[in-house]
């Protein structure tokens, strides 16, 4: 599967005139490069870019920005900023902020899933932007989850921007990769379970962050899947809290405890949202 996905990515990037640097052979780095902060005074969150062939013309490619639906719906203006990066001479990266239109004549330019908190929209990226995009084929289907026996305890990773208005990992504005595990059961069927928990601290700004499985020579149900198993399992919607209220004679105090659990919507909902996009961007 790894060889297939890499071949697809090379073909897609060649069609767009983009250069794939060697480091994006690694899915961790590929996702770091393809994950972007979306910002506006109303709402700041995480998004990532998928790349696919155009349904109308296989020779053309489309770049699709994916995030949690509430990240975009909370922005009341017609524009937001994508914080891209570009690679300078000598290998250094620098910020490349780009304005994107979210609405035209009051109508949203993004598509939202009818029941899940997922949004997707086409984006045009400047050629100097270091955003390879992630192949749509990496989105995990129910069949993928069965084939690779994805289950609680599996180590997963997430790429996001925790508390982006107060914290930045570096001058170029790259996201952070964090590790945890799948915490809840069952995962299937995804149309019924809709979301799952991960044992991973998530914070404000992480909404929209991709969650993925990356494992070499995975053993499942007695079978070894040679090479890299690479699956985007979903995106972060938020974190689970425990609210507590303590009453005394004269006052009531409320406390909110972070449980260290992230809430993730399944990748099948992402795929369904992308499929709802108009055929002609």
What do these coordinates show?
The protein is an alpha+beta fold. The chain folds into 2 domains: 2-136, Beta Barrel (Thrombin, subunit H); 137-269, Thrombin, subunit H (Beta Barrel), CATH 2.40.10.10. Helix content is 17%, strand content 43%. Strands 1, 2, 3, 4, 5, 8, 9 and 10 form an 8-stranded mixed sheet that branches. The longest helix has 15 residues, at 2-16. The model is unreliable at 1-24 (pLDDT under 50).
Short overview:
With 281 residues, the protein is of the alpha+beta class. The protein has helices at residues 2-16, 27-34, 69-73, 142-147, 190-193, 267-275, and strands spanning 35-39, 45-53, 61-68, 79-87, 93-101, 103-104, 107-108, 111-112, 118-122, 134-135, 155-160, 176-181, 195-198, 210-220, 223-247, 252-266.
The amount of beta strand, in percent, is: 35-45%
What's the number of helices?
6
In round numbers, the mean pLDDT is: 90
Helix content: 10-25%
Q: At the fourth CATH level, what is the homologous superfamily of the largest domain?
A: Trypsin-like serine proteases
CATH third-tier fold name of the largest domain: Thrombin, subunit H
* Shape, principal axes of CA atoms: globular
State the end-to-end distance: 29 Å
Query: How many E strands?
Result: 16
Name the poorly predicted regions: 1-24
Order of helices and strands: HHEEEHEEEEEEEHEEHEEEEH
């Amino acid at each position: 599967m790894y060889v297939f996905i890499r071949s697809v990515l090379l073909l897609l990037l060649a069609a767009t005139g983009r250069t794939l640097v060697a480091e994006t052979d690694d899915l961790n780095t590929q996702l770091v490069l393809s994950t972007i902060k979306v910002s506006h005074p109303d709402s700041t969150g995480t998004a990532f870019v998928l790349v696919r062939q155009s349904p109308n013309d296989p020779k053309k490619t489309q770049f699709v920005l994916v995030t949690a639906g509430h990240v975009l719906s909370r922005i009341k203006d017609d524009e937001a900023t994508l914080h891209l990066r570009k690679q300078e001479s000598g290998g250094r990266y620098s910020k490349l902020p780009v304005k994107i239109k979210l609405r035209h004549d009051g109508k949203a330019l993004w598509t939202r899933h009818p029941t899940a908190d997922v949004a997707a929209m086409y984006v045009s990226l400047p050629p100097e932007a270091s955003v390879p995009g992630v192949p749509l084929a990496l989105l995990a289907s129910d069949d993928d989850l069965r084939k690779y026996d994805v289950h609680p305890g599996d180590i997963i990773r997430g790429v996001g921007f925790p508390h982006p208005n107060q914290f930045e990992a570096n001058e170029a504005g790259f996201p952070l990769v964090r590790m945890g595990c799948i915490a809840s059961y069952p995962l299937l069927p995804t149309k019924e379970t809709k979301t799952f928990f991960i044992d991973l601290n998530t914070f404000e700004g992480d909404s929209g962050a991709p969650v993925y499985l990356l494992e070499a020579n995975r053993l499942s149900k007695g079978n070894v899947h040679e090479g890299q198993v690479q699956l985007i399992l979903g995106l972060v919607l938020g974190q689970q809290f425990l609210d507590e209220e303590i009453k005394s004679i004269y006052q009531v105090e409320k406390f909110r405890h972070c449980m260290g659990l992230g809430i993730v919507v399944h990748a099948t909902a992402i795929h369904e949202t992308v499929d709802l996009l108009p055929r002609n961007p």
